[in-house]
Amino acid sequence: MPSKTEQVADVLEREAGRLSPGERVSSVEALTDRLGVSIGTVIRGVDLAISRGVPLDRLRGPEGGYFRSPQPGGNGGHPHENDSQSAADSALAQAHRVLEQIELLIAMLERHNRRPCD
Question: How many domains does the chain have?
Answer without folding.
Answer: 1
